[in-house]
Amino acid sequence: MTPNRFRTPLLASLAVLATVACDHKSAPTNANYLKGLNAYFVDRSECLLPNARFPLETTDPAEQKRMNTLVASQLLKVSSEPAIKESRYVPTDLGAKSAPHFCYGHREVTTIDSATTPAVANGFNETQITYHYVIKDAPVWAKSADVQAAFPDLAEKMSGSANDKATLAQTRVGWQVPD
């Protein structure tokens, strides 16, 4: 065999290795950060009452006012004990679909505002991201002005201009939010 006969397959193999080594999904770019964040959020819902258990009983007037907006939206029904000024809330048939946490959609990252230079932390290159997002797949009740007035955090997230921060770790398959 002549040396040229080995040279062509060797050069082709090196070209394939170089392409694999330069995995573009792991490059520190805004587009890759966006993909990593959106992949993370697609299965993670935002919830109005992340720690709620029903029946929910309260004597706090501010909490009763907030819960009464969910009564008006037909998600909860209320019974009262006037002697002790207590209200007891339970989900309606409509509310049972969302109870007990009343999740209202998931984040979709729209822009990467800033990213730190990736640096090794916890065994991976990590970066700190600041981003803007919108809420996707929100039910009608979450868009209600009354519910948003009672739950300002919901209103901010539903505003279309919400922002947050996240840590992303560089992996072979792209950028991911570490668990």
Name some characteristics of this structure:
three-stranded antiparallel beta sheet; alpha+beta; elongated; 2 domains; 34% strand; 5 helices; 179 residues; six-stranded antiparallel beta sheet
For the CA atoms, what is the radius of gyration?
Answer: 25 Å
Q: Which percent range fits the helix content?
A: 25-40%
Given as residue ranges, the uncertain stretches (5+ residues, pLDDT < 50) are 6-22
Task: Please provide the ordered H/E string of secondary-structure elements.
Answer: HHEEHEEEEEHHEE
Tally of alpha and pi helices: 5
Strand content: 25-35%
Task: Note the gap between the termini.
Answer: 54 Å
The mean pLDDT is 88
Class per helix and strand makeup: alpha+beta
Q: What is the number of independent domains?
A: 2
Protein name: Lipoprotein
Give structural notes.
- It comes from Granulicella sibirica.
- This is Lipoprotein.
- There is one protein chain.
- By secondary structure, the chain is an alpha+beta fold.
- The chain has helices at 3-21, 30-41, 61-72, 145-150, 152-158; strands at residues 45-47, 56-58, 76-81, 86-91, 103-115, 119-121, 124-136, 162-171, 174-176.
- The chain folds into two domains: 24-46 and 105-179, no CATH class; 49-101, no CATH class.
- It is built from five helices and nine strands, in the order H-H-E-E-H-E-E-E-E-E-H-H-E-E.
- The strands form two sheets. Strands 1, 5, 6, 7, 8 and 9 form a six-stranded antiparallel beta sheet that branches. Strands 2-4-3 form a three-stranded antiparallel beta sheet, covered by helices on one side.
- The radius of gyration is 25 Å and the shape is elongated.
- Mean pLDDT is 88; it is low at 6-22.
